[in-house]
Amino acid sequence: MSDVRPRTQPVRVLIIDDDQDDRGRIRHILSKGFPAGRCVEISSKRELDTALARGDFDVVLTAYHLRWSDGLKILKTVKKRFPQRPVIWVGQLADEEEVAAAKKAGLSAYVAKLQLDSLVEVIHTHLVPAEPMPAEGRAIENSDSAEERYRVLCALTADYAYALHVTEEGDLIYEWVSDNFTQITGYTLIELVQTGDWTYLIHRDD
To answer: How far apart are CA 185 and CA 195, in angstroms?
Structure first.
């Protein structure tokens, strides 16, 4: 199972930008190109972590300069979790070398804020998945098999299980928790991400 959704379903977009006015402009343009689409505005790390935990998006639009991160870090974080989903930089005129380096890391495209009229077309272009190469197809298949093994382990585990990874900045990105986790702690994955810290679940007598 690929993490790219069929194009017959409405497009879901993450808009990551500190500037509320710019987010509004982007949202307005997308509402014309994707009338049935859904946009989620992101302006903080916690909101991004929550969106990544949910995973219910198809494309990421992000500014490069942010008060709490930058476009390259966000690109790497998204691609580590969702390698098939397009990430597009939307911003002021960017350095060509930065854009070239980002494309090597998986950036789909760069759209200047002065050229937002082309944004819908750019998104359409990258939402159409290309035919996977044989090796890529095997990698996706292996990934799904690994996920299934995790699920089986969860079913056989009396306690709870979870998966997370650490970013280059040392941040924890939660990927999933087993059903037992919610039953034992009373918290879902989304609630755990929103708290920002789960050390309060650890008791000295455990």
So the answer is: 13
